[in-house]
Amino acid sequence: MSFQFATRTKGLRSSAIRDLLKVTEMPNMLSLAGGLPTPDSFPLPDLRREADRLLGEYGPRVVQYSATDGVVELRTWIAAHYSVELGRPVSVDGEIIVTHGSQQALDLLAKVLVDPGDVVMSESPAYLGAVQALELFEPRFEVVPGDEHGMCVELLAERLAAGLRPKLVYVVPNFHNPSGATMSLERRRLLAQLADEYELLIVEDDPYGAIRFAGEPLPPVASFTTRVVHLSTFSKIVAPGFRVGWMIGPPEVMAMVARAKQAADLHTATFPQMLLANIVSQAGWLDAQKARIVPMYRERCVALADAIDDRIGDRIRFHRPEGGMFLWTEFRDVPDTKVLLQHAVEAGVAFVPGNAFTIDQAPDSKARFSYSTLAPDQLVEAVARLTRALDAFDAGR
Amino acid sequence: MSFQFATRTKGLRSSAIRDLLKVTEMPNMLSLAGGLPTPDSFPLPDLRREADRLLGEYGPRVVQYSATDGVVELRTWIAAHYSVELGRPVSVDGEIIVTHGSQQALDLLAKVLVDPGDVVMSESPAYLGAVQALELFEPRFEVVPGDEHGMCVELLAERLAAGLRPKLVYVVPNFHNPSGATMSLERRRLLAQLADEYELLIVEDDPYGAIRFAGEPLPPVASFTTRVVHLSTFSKIVAPGFRVGWMIGPPEVMAMVARAKQAADLHTATFPQMLLANIVSQAGWLDAQKARIVPMYRERCVALADAIDDRIGDRIRFHRPEGGMFLWTEFRDVPDTKVLLQHAVEAGVAFVPGNAFTIDQAPDSKARFSYSTLAPDQLVEAVARLTRALDAFDAGR
Known about the structure:
Two copies of one chain form a homodimer.
Chain A: H1 16-24, E1 30-31, H2 44-58, H3 72-86, E2 96-99, H4 101-113, E3 119-124, H5 128-135, E4 140-147, E5 150-151, H6 153-161, E6 168-171, H7 185-198, E7 202-205, E8 228-233, E9 245-248, H8 251-265, H9 270-280, H10 285-311, E10 316-318, E11 326-331, H11 337-347, E12 349-350, E13 352-353, E14 366-370, H12 376-395
Parallel strand pairs in A: 1-12, 3-4, 3-6, 6-7, 7-8
Antiparallel strand pairs in A: 2-9, 4-5, 8-9, 10-11, 11-14, 13-14
């Protein structure tokens, strides 16, 4: 069918990971490719009890339209939580907007801030969802490399000193997806200083921060400057299927985002917000949930990392993350991990090639392994299959 | 705080209706200004029972990430429902995308289709939410007046014959918000013919169609041509606080929308989709729900319309809608209903001035009254207050 409009995509990029999921649905496939939280972590009995109470006792308002910036019960919890986390009072009104996941926060920020050609800075490798949300508004991406201590903020400082003026700087400081890196305290402080000095807006995306299983917690960049929009979500710490995330930021930015949110979907769904607000507001609930689920991720991360050390040894390099869901690796003798992936799929294991997380998508030696959804013994078997795939790759060269 | 970006709004317009809601929260205010469905219509016991079953029996998948185009259970219901409604097979895959309310469908369509300066056609008066979603992408709005039989499609035909080529034509054919009009069968057929002849894309927004309390149902425009993206929602027939709507359209358009949906929020929340799919899929449930709630709206519409006839008489003109939530009126001697609104608020009643639903927002004599949330006796009292406001307005001239 033809239309008055040319069929075009306005810069839309399909997710390589989503496409990969088709492969991972094959029978007997062990997938290290996904990014789903482990289903064992979902607090189904708590959700069930609270859903029953809401629909039984609270009356129709839990399923009625609600405020564009979020239901007050949830904003009250967020304000209290971040007043501690950021070390300054966060207001229930004007600083918080509840979104359909952190992904929507990225989309709304892009929508109100980014015009075609605007410079957007990101780490490389970068979270693909952020790239997808931003690129629809046609920015010019500029990347700063990251290492195991996060974005090389010193290099950002050089670029700024040389005159670059980004519309926003996007960082994932805790257990980065895909790199697993945690930004050091020094770099967090420096990034905040640069924001103040150059009047930058930092977008600090923190979906994984609560899943820390090693090392000490570090203060968010938003605790060092108010020039930050801080994003987080219940997707990893409670459950992702409610699509409830939030952003906290300067009132002048949040006012613009609120108007865009209203145009985008009026408001975030009322019932999921009420459900999650009531659960996390119970005294001690979140600490107990973390105490229950963080060891799951620790155990899986250790199982995967140990198996790689044992079986693949010096043919691969990686650092052990302090939390989150991802192990980022570099193969010594694999110039293009997309080719290795083909052997891997034949051997019954899947992962995401590193170039999927770059702007230019040039082939590279890297790969992201997720340890979140497989049990420890499955992770060991996945590495055994990966080893066979690596042998087959070597034999085919 | 200053930033590298100028604080601007990229065409964002705050909703006059949302701003009005602040006034309507005053104690003792009787509001005809809102557009909320009556809370009495929400099937809380059914929702409670099904939520319990999902969280108790279905396991973690009901709160896990899910497919970008919607959970298969809901798409299966939508496909079956519209295969009947449209008189042709609608596929579960490729033709349907579940959205966070119809509002998000409008946002996504605007995002993939509208470039700055593109012509978008709408009725006037127009649904404000659609204008808000579209204007962010900076189209050139062209309006065609509507009457009590919907958009004057004959005038659209003249504009097309004269060379106008819109990117999309937006219509609300059933019980329009704000006009209450229902598009006649002849105009539906003509609109479909024009779409085929000029290769147009029609966006047919149908949130209210199930709430018909007079006259005979008419086939949707999408039953006469496939050049339609048809939008609907559970917001009015079940409950709005789940934010579950959907669109059905040509696969080539839906493929673009799916990529934008992924970038916007990954997918619509899983749990609300499962909950609503399971409820509406029960044999006979939707018919029973309609039989329960349609009389509520009929009774309220009659109460409001009769009270206006009795108390205000020939100082106001309106037609009685065949369904939906809105009564659209024109005052004989009020050149600007914003001025009348000030007197009305003093008298303890609120409504939305007609110019809020126009692109140019020029003052006019019109007003939208919603009868959805007040009880019949409250509607009678609201009209009594409105009459006092009208007297005060006349006295002040």
